Amino acid sequence: MIFRLLIILLVLPAIAMSEDSKMPNSIKDVKAQHEERLLQLPGVVSVGIGHDENGNPAIIVGLERPDPETESQLPTWLDGYPVVVRIVGRIKAQ
């Protein structure tokens, strides 16, 4: 009986941790995870968080100008969140 109880106590935390790994990442986590790679693409000047045309949370990728080649390299979804491309122009520090 004690052996079974010991096994249950050791196995339950492992099961709980595996359930946590199935939880979706927050949109902030997704942005942080992919931002550096996205900013390395030509013409990408910003990566942010906003909403798609339906009002759903989305990753917003800002391009300096329309660029079909860069746009074709962008994913349409990142970890369950839609990627929306917006032409924002050149970004200047103020």
What can you see in these coordinates?
41% of the residues lie in helices and 26% in strands. It has 94 residues and is of the alpha+beta class. It has a single domain (24-94), classed as GMP Synthetase, Chain A, domain 3, CATH 3.30.300. A 4-stranded mixed beta sheet has the order 1-2-4-3, with helices on one face. The longest helix has 20 residues, at 2-21. The radius of gyration is 20 Å and the shape is globular. Mean pLDDT is 84; it is low at 3-7.
Short description:
By secondary structure, the protein is an alpha+beta fold. It is built from three helices and four strands, in the order ααββαββ.
State the main characteristics:
94 residues; GMP Synthetase, Chain A, domain 3; globular; 3 helices; 4 strands; four-stranded mixed β-sheet; 41% helix; alpha+beta
Secondary-structure blueprint of this entry?
Layout lengths: L1 H20 L5 H13 L4 E8 L5 E7 L4 H6 L3 E2 L2 E7 L7
Parallel strand pairs: 2-4
Antiparallel strand pairs: 1-2, 3-4
